[in-house]
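Consider the following assembly input.
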Amino acid sequence: MNMMPSAIAQARSLRKGGEEDAGHDAGQTDFLTIRGLEAGYAGTRVLKGIDLSVFKGEFIALLGSSGCGKSTLLRTLAGFAKPDAGEIRVAGRDVTRLGPDKRGMALVFQSYALWPHMSVAQNIGYGLKLAGRAKADIASRVGELQMQLGLGGLEQRKPAELSGGQRQRVALARALAVQPDILLLDEPLSNLDARIRLTVRHEIIALQRRLGTTAIHVTHDREEAMVMADRIVILNEGAIAQVGTPQDVYKRPASAFVAAFMGAENCLPLSIEKSGAGLHVHANDLCEGASLPIPSNPLVSGPVEARFRPQAVELTPHQPQTGTEPGGDGAVIFKGRVEQTSYPGGAWRHVVSLGSHSVVADAQRSFAPGEAVNLRVAAEDLFLFSPA
Amino acid sequence: MTVSHEVLAAPAPRMARHIDWSWAPRGILLGLLAFAIFGPLANLLLWAVAESWYFPHTFPISYGFSYWAKVFAPRGGAVDALLTSVGVAALTVALSLALAIPAGYALARLKLPFRALILLALLIPNAFPNLPIYVNLARIFYELDLNGTVLGVVLVHTSHGLVYAVWIGTAAFAAVDNELSEAARTVGAGAFRAFLDVDLPLAAPGLLASAIFVFLESLDEFTGTYFVGAPDVNTLPLLLYTAGAGGNYQIASITALVLLAPSIAFMFVVERFLRADVLAKIGR
């Protein structure tokens, strides 16, 4: 409580400074800057120091499982949750302590939050009405948005008379009508049918590209994040686990958590030794020895966690000695026994046991349960992590 | 076809002979309840149109509307009393809503300490015996020159009706999803603007229902009006009391009917506007 007056005074001075700064160009580098953001409630810290820079026109996906703080981060950005520490800047302007209506951000809610007592046109035009725009001006802008989003002819309908997909688009149109600097999307597709979701994904991206709006999209759907985003921010327990392009986080996960979250669920223990030339994998009862190039993430000699995707495995019938010599072909070969076989579509899926461990491996042909197999995982598909 | 008809029809008479006696106590109870509710009402209706009715006649001897003319004649005072009653009730509604809208919004939306205690405190005027309170209130109002004024009566009625207004008002605001006003904030509405454009219209049906409760409560209120208002502020219940006490059953019945009509009419409105999701949140 005794912090309050000084915090308010600071916020005031920052706001003043922000207004003066607003004139000059903040540059292309960071349009939205989040620094050291911490938030929480009732003693639990939900966000533990978030640092993030977003470029103008970029589409960012905040990806994480439920409870990772992604929605709290979005609500803090929107101004509905007060951060305990840190700052948020938009084009150089400090907005950390500003109300939700003064941030130049518009939020599309997961529930859509359409006003049931207003028609589609009134819902979309509300922000423009608040801005004091002329009636004819509002009508033409609303009509334009309706056309762009395929809502033509629905202006007199109430939200209750719309389908799920139409409601979603009205919510999007309402947010876009005020031409926000930043569009915030809180799992806007999660309430849609799976088939509609796929098309709406592309519609949203196309619209966002055309308008050049900076967008921050919260989702727990990995594929959705991969397809939609320019960059993905993976959150884990209130902290950023990794930021990168979809290819980055898919091919070069920075941690075991990211690797697992991006589908590399198979996890086996290995022992490695680092030398100048490369990485030597010691043979153990799971695999044969191998030499690999040194990966990009930091590793120390000793036990490591090896992670790989089911699709990355090349499954072959077991051969006692494949001739994998140290410094060989840059792949690790595990030895296992098929436990289960199923066909989920595309490839045969096998549950393979390796001693007390078991992994999932895909193959174009099926192997019978009980069959001894070799699992070859190429170096670029094998993610190694030293224990933290 | 005929065969199947006979087959179908045959068991019916046998079924009819079986009377489910377990329903009898319930039937009798329902009948008694109906009599308890509709008996006095029927009596009221009869008295309202009875010209003369005395013992040992079961029904009035002659019917007519001459007492209606008497009640609504300028000297009858009913019209004045009705206008006073409606005026007091309208002012009570206005005052209650003026207090209940901010209070209900705050209780529904903000994290107030002692929230349950505040809700309970509103019950207190209705929880204690009315008479000693109003006697003392009359004394205090006398010192404040509020005795015998419409304002004094309105204040008493408001203290009584506020519990309905705030409890239902709180439930009405709680039934409006918070994200709806947040959605208004995010497209540029200030906090008060979002309240006016989103929360208030969406809570309006519940608030209307609470207004009707307060209106009816005020229209019916007797004790407080008697101690604080009489004889300067003469409402319909006071007129009814005077007529009833004087053995003037026709006038009392007609006044009672006038009081009853808005109650019944408004109950239908309340039933229409007080949705289940609002009802579920009352007192929470």
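The two ends of chain B are 61 Å apart (CA to CA). Ask yourself how this observation constrains the way the partners meet.
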